[in-house]
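queue> pop job 88
queue> type: inverse folding (structure -> sequence)
queue> payload:
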């Protein structure tokens, strides 16, 4: 009985380590939750552990928005539910959720 319990605990521990390794090494992307104004997006990270921002308001005024192929697109082509990658500006307003800006946004889907 004890041997089964230890082997089950070992299996769960290995599964936990595999999950940690996968989540920590995957590339972070964000999902657009809501388009609020002409230059403001609400975004959510795809990472569970140590995301840049779990949820944030993203000011994209002056940001370059490109598609996966590299062509520049308009803000109006972004839709709720789209996955994006963001190059953040260094300034963050500490609110809940934080407000930050972007240099470049890449549409993944």
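queue> result:
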């Amino acid at each position: 009985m004890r041997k089964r319990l230890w082997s089950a605990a070992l299996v769960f521990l290995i599964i936990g380590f595999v999950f940690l390794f996968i989540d920590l090494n995957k590339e972070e992307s964000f999902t657009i939750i809501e388009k609020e104004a002409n230059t403001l997006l609400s975004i959510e990270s795809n990472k569970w552990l140590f995301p840049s921002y779990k949820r944030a308001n993203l000011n994209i005024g002056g940001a370059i928005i490109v598609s996966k192929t590299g062509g520049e697109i308009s803000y109006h082509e972004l839709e709720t539910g789209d996955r994006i990658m963001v190059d953040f500006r260094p300034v963050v307003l500490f609110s809940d959720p934080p407000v930050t800006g972007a240099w470049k946004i890449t549409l993944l889907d």
